[in-house]
């Protein structure tokens, strides 16, 4: 029988793993919220809510109306607006917030990273001379590259890019990770890629391209992470699961 109620703001592999771990404790009513940006999301182990809440106030109202005991922010490291809304909603509703924030990648001495603050800065970093660029970004973040039509682009995304970009030289790959280093090396070499544009997502699922770039001595334009609001944070599913286990202990039934 569920004793506590938890809302998980998800969209990441770790959010799904966390939901599964908490479900196994058999004392939580769990709900996983997805923004709805991916057309065919991976199946989840708990009930799912798709779509926004109407900002921080809407989320706060939803938390109170449904009597949640805990809000978990397990969104993508670049979902800054959602994380900000979660922090404000927690303050407005009084429902405590914890975050699952996987650490970012750190450059090795052999890496050729150019670290930039935004997608627009990444476009500038490609330079004026034509290059073959691999864009490993979400489809909502591609429009700024139309300002640099001189490059030859290879775009990989989970969902098709619709409408297509207004660029003379662009190819599309639709695929869902994880992507290992060996396959990424083949893709980059076969496509003649000279530079990769990536976000510092962290984790193992998409690190293959970074390791492959190192092996092939390719440049990586790395978009830095946004500043997220302060919240009690954990770097792994295991650590956050242990925290929730201690914070919301099982209620022992008394005997006669």
UniProtKB/TrEMBL annotation:
Record keywords, A-Z: Cobalamin biosynthesis, Oxidoreductase
Enzyme class per UniProt: oxidoreductase
Highest taxon of source: Bacteria
Protein name: Cobalt-precorrin-6A reductase
Source organism phylogeny: Bacteria, Pseudomonadati, Pseudomonadota, Alphaproteobacteria, Hyphomicrobiales
GO molecular function annotation: oxidoreductase activity
Organism (species): Rhizobium oryzicola
UniProt-listed Enzyme Commission number(s): 1.3.1.106
Record pathway: Cofactor biosynthesis; adenosylcobalamin biosynthesis
InterPro entries according to UniProt: Precorrin-6x_reduct
